[in-house]
Amino acid sequence: MTNGSGRRAVVTGAAGFIGSHLCERLVADGWRVTGIDCFTDYYARDDKLSNLAGLATEPAFDLVEQDLVADGWQASLQGAAAVFHLAAQAGVRDSFGESFGQYASNNLVATQRVFEAAGSATTGRVVWSSSSSVYGDAETHPCREDSTPTLPRSPYGVTKRACEDLARVYRTRGLPITGLRYFTVYGPRQRPDMAMRRICDALVSNATFPLFGDGSQSRDFTFVTDAVDATVRCAHSAAATEVYNVGGGEEASLSHVIATLERLAGRRLALDPHPTQRGDVHRTSADVSLARRNLGWSPVVPLDQGLAAQFAWVQDRRSSKAVSA
Ligand SMILES: NC(=O)c1ccc[n+]([C@@H]2O[C@H](COP(=O)([O-])OP(=O)(O)OC[C@H]3O[C@@H](n4cnc5c(N)ncnc54)[C@H](O)[C@@H]3O)[C@@H](O)[C@H]2O)c1
User: Fold this and answer.
1) Active centre residues (catalytic)
2) How many angstroms is it from 122 CA to the middle of ligand 1?
3) DSSP label at residue 143
4) HSE of 127 in the Cβ direction (CA atoms, 13 Å)?
5) For the chain, how big is the Rg over CA atoms in Å?
6) Adjacent-strand bridge partners of 223
7) For the chain, where are the E strands, in sequence order?
8) What spacing in Å lies between the alpha carbon of 233 and ligand 1's midpoint?
9) Atom number in ligand 1 closest to CA 222
10) 156-169: per-residue pLDDT in tens?
11) How confident is the model at residue 2 (pLDDT cuts 50, 70, 90)?
12) What phi and psi values does residue 224 have, to the nearest 5 degrees?
């Protein structure tokens, strides 16, 4: 893929799951990268610091620890050739109830502030992370950017949908912005609240996994390096596309994922059944022909390979914690 040639990129949410992989890829491509993250307490600071471990001694990477909702980080966008805005409060279930304020602040307010700051700094393209959650429980599959209605089923999805509206406003003011609707991204460093990660954690520690629904719910799973590749290609693309689906192309049920991980672990997972949770959709699947056509992007990591990589990472992490304890 095209070289960064020493140009500078800004990545918000750099200490997070996808953001840390993106920073590593950009540095490997020859970019100088400024990461911005405020280490929200959604999950442990130590987990986020270890996400950044591979970049700690990297001269082409620096970290600005700032909250996008406060001031102090805007100058770091000045002259950047690309801005990747991945910072957000993720997670569907927690977006109901009292914690919605976090979603409104870290998604809506933060995103508006990034678009505003990018508009007054001389940046190139702004690539930002929307979500498959904007589709809600779509009636037809696979979902297409231009014809599937966006009817989010969770307050989280609503914030991402509203960010798409914000992006449209700033695009009409001349800012080159493209959104990526990521479909369930997985792989090493996946957030600890996500189902695959919790299944892996339960298998390596012999714990029970709370199964919401009957396991037939399916997702279009996307391996993290594939999601990152689409993201990087987007920054290099001349196409003025508003939004792309980024899906791994291998839809699978949660039961299938559990069975695959059980095989990898060599043991059965103890399940604790619960009713479907509010906000959970039954199915997601992405039509990625627009990204294929405009970005030359295709997902390349098959689900069984990606699951093996994630499971191996969870095992390694557990072994190194046991050694250091
Ligand atoms: N992981 C997925 O499957 C998935 C799917 C669809 C969309 N997305 C989107 O992709 C992006 C990255 O997701 P992730 O899974 O890596 O999440 P993550 O929680 O691991 O990373 C997000 C990072 O943003 C930071 N952050 C949040 N609010 C901030 C603020 N106000 N100022 C500065 N930093 C802030 C957090 O500290 C965190 O490190 C998010 O926008 C998420 O909504 C993720």
Assistant:
1) 156
2) 25
3) B
4) 28
5) 19
6) 186
7) 8-12, 32-37, 61-65, 82-85, 125-131, 177-182, 185-186, 208-212, 218-223, 243-246, 250-253, 270-274
8) 20
9) 3
10) 999 999 999 999 99
11) low
12) -60, -35
